[in-house]
Amino acid sequence: MRHILLSGISHQVLTDLEHEKIKTIEIRSPHNFLSVLETNVGDIIFLTSTSGEDVRAGTTGLIARIRGKQVSMHRIIQKTPEFYEESEFQLARLQLEMKGHGRVRRSECCEIGKASVVDADEVRSFEGR
């Protein structure tokens, strides 16, 4: 089944999602942010700690359903007598519900400005290799 890919997610976040079953995460990295923009509430996505460039057949991760999505802009202002600096950035918050573990069959990623997509199967039991 085809899923939008979120890559480079920390091991701690994946472990928390695995144990808590529902978790809200913040997405700030540009490659994952572009992927999040292509999703809707109710979509099933694939999360892995592997970097996007290294995702290939056999990469493991978690399969989760998006329960909530929020995109917002934050503004940061730093001011001293010598300088004034203002910056803005966008971030997305996703509330996820874990559905299971998965393994990538095929990766369709890495086009600039496009969502990363993988073809992944749910792994119902662990198999020795």
TrEMBL record:
Pfam families noted in UniProt: DUF473 (PF04322)
InterPro entries documented for this protein: DUF473
Highest taxon listed in the record's lineage: Archaea
Name the record gives this protein: DUF473 domain-containing protein
Taxonomic lineage: Archaea, Methanobacteriati, Methanobacteriota, Stenosarchaea group, Methanomicrobia
